[in-house]
């Protein structure tokens, strides 16, 4: 049986309803084009026929080096990637001899001061980008562009983050798979399926049992992709999108659970050397290399955000008046939201503190967690 469910589409929706019905329960939603119609990119990057304005894109970004995938060449669980000048990519895109896809391009790092968009208020509570912007080391804000048939293989997003995707032009066909079904798309060697629309039935005999959602995202629409939902994306016509990976208090526990699960896998892979000196610190090193973050890194992220919220509790205004990363909606920094964020942080810290691996990590992580928990408790008392 191939169960298929629908993604809801909404023209108007209050942020509180979005939080209660979609963000917290972790359910996808499409927001109507009216949510992005004011974005400069939706006028400037697109012709009046709704096609990419190649000349304008080349003028804005032609000299930039951009990451480009060859959609017809598998490379491990991904596609073969290279880097080229945007002007070269645009020529190849127009020639359409290959399915080349400019993807995961960190376009906001471009020296061009051009502000192409501003996050949709509902999708603006973006701790991941706030944290990395504060650190100045990375970002998770991307642009994707490519012709008809360019696509992204089946995957789950980094750190079990949410994603949002807004189409500047063109359409995307999404297949979204709710969490808890990994066993249906993993083969006997532990590899997951690459292309859910074209696969070897013998290797994945139960794939047809997947419960999945399918949706075609139209020009201007913004899709909320929940945390831990696997997905595959196929572009229909020339397509450009702006996407963020993001996370916040509502998927913090999922992030932690993913990390704990990844650590379990690392320790299993290293099981023959469990007796070696410093095994647990070594396992953290491998975790960081594989998953992009380790327990200490996760704690640093949580502490950074907790500290920001505690300052809000103490009555200081949000930095620069907008809590940064191009404006988090004030709904998420209201006293009730601040309280809820700190409570959710505290409950994840409880899990981290009682994780049997935490006390094994050198450098006193367990003590730092308990100090932070006391500070949060105090801050919550002040705000009653
Ligand atoms: O649009 C694409 O090709 C991939 C987007 C994606 O995977 C995401 O936004 O998480
Ligand atoms: Fe993704």
Automatic annotation (TrEMBL):
GO terms of biological process kind: positive regulation of translational termination
InterPro entries: Cupin_8, JmjC_dom, JMJD6_ArgDemeth/LysHydrox
Taxonomic superkingdom: Eukaryota
MF annotations from Gene Ontology: 2-oxoglutarate-dependent dioxygenase activity; sequence-specific DNA binding
One Pfam family linked to the record: Cupin_8
Cellular component GO terms, alphabetical: cytoplasm; nucleus
Domain JmjC residues, every copy: 109-263
Name by which UniProt lists this protein: JmjC domain-containing protein
Species of provenance: Coemansia thaxteri
């Amino acid at each position: 049986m191939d169960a298929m469910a629908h993604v809801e589409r909404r023209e108007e929706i209050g942020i509180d309803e979005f939080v209660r019905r979609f963000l917290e329960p972790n359910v996808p939603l499409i927001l109507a084009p009216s949510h992005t119609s004011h974005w400069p990119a939706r006028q400037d990057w697109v012709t009046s026929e709704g096609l990419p304005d190649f000349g304008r894109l080349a003028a804005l970004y032609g000299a930039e080096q951009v990451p480009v995938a060859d959609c017809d060449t598998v490379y491990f669980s991904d596609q073969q990637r290279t880097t080229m000048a945007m002007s070269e990519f645009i020529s190849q895109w127009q020639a359409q001899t290959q399915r080349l896809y400019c993807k995961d391009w960190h376009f906001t790092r471009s020296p061009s001061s051009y502000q192409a968009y501003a996050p949709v208020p509902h999708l603006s509570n973006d701790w991941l980008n706030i944290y990395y912007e504060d650190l100045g080391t990375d970002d998770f804000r991307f642009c994707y562009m490519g012709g008809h048939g360019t696509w992204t293989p089946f995957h789950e997003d980094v750190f079990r983050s949410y994603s949002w995707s807004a189409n500047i032009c063109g359409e995307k066909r999404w297949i979204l798979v709710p969490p808890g079904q990994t066993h249906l798309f993993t083969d006997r060697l532990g590899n997951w399926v690459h292309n859910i629309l074209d696969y070897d039935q013998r290797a994945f005999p139960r794939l047809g049992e997947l419960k999945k959602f399918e949706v075609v995202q139209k020009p201007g629409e913004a899709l909320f992709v929940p945390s831990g939902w696997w997905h595959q994306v196929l572009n229909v016509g020339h397509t450009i999108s702006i996407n963020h990976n993001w996370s916040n208090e509502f998927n913090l526990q999922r992030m932690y659970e993913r990390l704990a699960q990844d650590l379990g896998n690392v320790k299993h892979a290293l099981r023959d050397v469990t007796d070696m000196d410093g095994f647990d610190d070594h396992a953290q090193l491998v975790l960081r290399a594989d998953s992009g973050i380790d327990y200490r890194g996760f704690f640093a992220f949580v502490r950074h955000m907790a500290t920001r919220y505690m300052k809000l509790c103490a009555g200081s205004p949000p930095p620069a008046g907008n809590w940064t990363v191009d404006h988090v909606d004030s709904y998420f920094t209201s006293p009730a939201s601040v309280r809820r964020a700190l409570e959710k942080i505290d409950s994840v810290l409880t899990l981290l503190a009682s994780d049997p691996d935490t006390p094994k990590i050198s450098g006193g992580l367990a003590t730092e967690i308990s100090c932070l928990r006391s500070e949060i408790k105090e801050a919550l008392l002040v705000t009653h």
